[in-house]
Design brief:
single chain, 216 residues, alpha/beta, Rossmann fold, Arc Repressor Mutant, subunit A, 2 domains, six-stranded parallel sheet, globular
Length: 216
Amino acid sequence: MKKLKVHIVDDHKVVADGLGMMLGSHPEIEVGAVNHTGEKALAGLVNDVPDVVLMDYSLSEAGADAMNGLETAQRIIAGYPSVKIMMLTMHDSPTVIIPCVTAGVHGYMLKSERNTDVASAILTLDRQGFYFSPTIAKDLAANMRNHTDDNGTVTERERDVLECLFKGGNSREIADELFISMHTVDTHRRNLIQKFGAKNSVHLIYIALKKGILKV
């Protein structure tokens, strides 16, 4: 079985090394590069492209002029669209979370959350294309609930697919729940992404929350 390759970017060496040891012991995950700056993370992608980059937001110890996690993620998304970005950080402010989501990151979770299972989150991200930790999902929904507009409409079936996506369902699980084929689920997902100009499924959910199509 092919393992999921993960690169780690965190400016705190103890944290980065600890994540590397923990993820490296998982039977389905292979840890590639472990970097402490965005610049080194980008340079490493030239010869070794992973499936997922697990990245802190701040990267503050890298220096005042260094890229933060968001800037690094934007460059990775632009240059390596096949790579999924998981933000693992202490920042729970909407002023940080929302720019990350709109930039196209695929996942966001907090280091401070109890029972944080980074390996499971990464595997979920790879399987369904996105991952929000429960705290982030609730906070994001609460912040978007009152910021709605009337642009764009969805069909009843598209709304059903959106709701299942927000609950964390993958294509197979959504197909089983809605009694439709996986091909139909994927078609609805592609149509929704195109309809709302979303970058990926995470951005699609963000837009649906902002428009009031999804509510918690």
